[in-house]
Design goal:
With about 475 residues, the chain is an alpha+beta fold. Helices cover about 20% and strands about 35% of the residues. The chain folds into three domains: about 90 residues, Nuclear Transport Factor 2, Chain: A; about 160 residues, Nuclear Transport Factor 2, Chain: A (Roll), CATH 3.10.450; about 120 residues, Glucose Permease (Domain IIA) (Distorted Sandwich).
Length: about 475
């Protein structure tokens, strides 16, 4: 009992000691808080700067230039005035979704100037659809009036607008162009397309070449490493810069040890055709035969995704039915060309074909182009088309599992395999009066091709800065 009382007394003493220490520890904290409060509320403060105002300006009383005891005199001539408007030139970048009206409003051009500008028919016609990424140059005078506007419609054509009092005068100016032959050559290591790009060949020339030699060479599977090409084609230049690509003038392709050469000839009626350039063509005044009137493959494709078959399991429908054409896989938007001259009979949506073009070539032959993304702007039922003309672009509309061209070749509405059907040839004779001219053209082009090394990057011999365009082997 006594032991228990002693224990309780000891514990009470300990608790009293803890409370006492806590109270002692609070005193310094309380004193520190009182000192902080004193400094905050009673320590002397600097005077708050005051501001003296005038009708024209104000002066800060704590400005280093104004000391206590001094008087400040304010001269009205020192009043701050906004800077006078300045004339300026500015290149304005066109962004996606921009319109000419919105573009000029964003540059603070006066609305009456914009209205007067857009009332000019030439301006409305040429600037109705401005292109993103291009520039509009404007000049504004000191009165903030639009005085000049220029817009490059193409590398050779510019729209110029000049202020005349309260109106504007608009005109198109053209830069002088020079058309001259351009030469390129290269060795094929993988594909003709890659070899052409490596030698700076325009895509148009690469595609034209595959169409011209399609009846002789399989560009997807027939070319081998070491095969080579040489080509002469037209280019338009402005100040030594290429602005447009024309026609192939002459070209040779060596494939598996055999060389094929074609030369372009324009007859007295202005009709151009390509002819084999061999010894027979040079000595025979007639019976010079042009290439096939049809292209085997009217698109630059990456692979044949489905072949012609009378019994194929459809990849989407999952049952067997005939496949009346070939599917040529290609990136969406790849140009599709007419495989021969003809008249468009259908250009629209047709069931599983999706967007479809049908061309009637006469003599019972029709071709079909299906799953198109969109049609070329001038293609509709009744349009006359020429071989190689762009008619549409690759897509995946209709019953298609991916972007490709479904191409059909029909004779009297009976489907034929486009890759194996015997294509008609169109023979043209060169008259005796034109044979000498043709021979001169062939001899000139053959000499140029013969003297062209196989490592020549595309260049025009007539341009001074393109003298050294041969790659090291």
């Amino acid at each position: 009992m006594i032991s228990s009382l002693k224990t309780r007394g000891a514990m009470a003493a300990v608790r009293r000691d803890v409370r006492s220490r806590r109270r002692v520890g609070l005193y310094p904290l309380l004193i520190l808080s009182l000192l902080v409060a004193f400094f905050i509320f009673f320590w002397p403060q600097n005077d708050v700067p005051t501001t003296a105002y005038d009708d024209t300006r104000y002066v800060q009383q704590n400005d280093f230039s104004v000391l206590p005891g001094n008087t400040v005199s304010i001269d009205s001539t020192d009043a701050v005035t906004p800077p006078a408007p300045q004339a300026y030139d500015k290149n304005v970048l066109i962004r996606r979704g921009d319109t000419l009206n919105g573009l000029l409003l964003a540059q603070n051009i006066q609305t009456q100037d914009i209205a007067a500008l857009l009332s000019i028919p030439l301006v409305k016609r040429t600037l109705a659809h401005i292109s993103p990424g291009q520039m509009v140059n404007i000049h504004v005078n000191a009165d903030q009036e639009l005085t000049d506007l220029t817009y490059a419609l193409s590398p050779t054509q510019t729209l110029s607008v000049t202020r005349l009092d309260d109106n504007f005068d608009a005109k198109l100016t053209k830069k002088p162009t020079s058309v001259m032959p351009t030469i390129a050559a290269g060795v094929i290591t993988s594909t003709f397309y890659e070899a052409g790009l490596a030698q700076h060949l325009p895509q148009k020339i690469i595609l034209d070449a595959t169409h011209l030699f399609a009846s002789k060479i399989n560009f997807k599977r027939g070319l081998k490493p070491g095969d080579h090409f040489k080509v002469i084609y037209e280019s338009s230049y402005v100040q030594n810069k290429t602005v447009a690509t024309g026609n192939i003038l002459a070209m040779e392709i060596s494939n598996d040890g055999k060389t094929y050469t074609l030369v372009r000839h324009v007859d007295s009626r202005g009709v151009s055709r390509y002819y084999p350039a061999d010894s027979h063509a040079l000595r025979n005044a007639v019976a010079v035969t042009a290439q096939s009137t049809f292209l085997r493959t009217p698109v630059h494709y990456t692979r044949i995704s489905s072949s012609f078959s009378m019994k194929r399991v459809h990849p989407l429908l999952l049952f067997s039915r005939p496949h009346y054409g070939v599917d040529l896989a290609a990136p969406r938007g790849t140009p599709v060309v007419a495989s021969a001259n003809g008249i468009v009979t259908v250009a629209g949506k047709e069931g599983g074909y999706g967007n479809l073009v049908i061309i009637n070539h006469g003599h019972g032959v029709t071709t079909r182009y299906g799953h198109l993304n969109r049609f070329a702007s001038n293609i509709h039922a009744g349009s006359a088309v020429k071989q190689g003309q762009v008619i549409a672009y690759v897509g995946s509309t209709g019953l298609a599992s991916g972007p490709h061209l479904h191409y059909e070749y029909r004779v009297n509405n009976v489907p034929q395999n486009p890759l194996t059907v015997k294509l008609p040839l169109e023979a043209h004779s060169i008259s005796s009066s034109e044979q000498k001219q043709f021979n001169r053209e062939v001899n000139t082009y053959l000499a140029q091709l013969h003297n062209t090394p196989l490592s020549v990057v595309a260049y025009a011999p007539g341009l001074s800065q393109n003298k050294n365009n041969t790659k090291e082997a």
